[in-house]
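Lab meeting, item 3. Inverse folding demo.
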């Protein structure tokens, strides 16, 4: 189960960045949203110089899986 519809359409880093920020908006409190928004921004900056297409696809796949886990974690708590 993807955290938001459209996960399967994410192909490029900028699409992933926008997708993850939209996921953050669905989290329950402003504090949690800001925490994960910051983490998304930091991770994007760390990987900004990545130029290997295979590695970029691995990062995208893992980021979507991690977002799914986080969204499910907070869904279960409510």
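The presenter then showed the designed sequence:
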């Amino acid at each position: 189960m993807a955290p938001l519809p459209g996960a399967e359409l994410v192909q490029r880093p900028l699409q992933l960045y926008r997708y993850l920020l939209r996921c953050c908006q669905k989290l329950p409190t402003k504090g949690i949203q800001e925490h994960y928004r910051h983490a998304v921004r930091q991770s994007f900056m760390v990987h900004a110089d990545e130029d290997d297409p295979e590695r970029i696809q691995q990062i995208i796949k893992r980021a979507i899986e991690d977002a799914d886990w986080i969204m499910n974690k907070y869904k279960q708590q409510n």
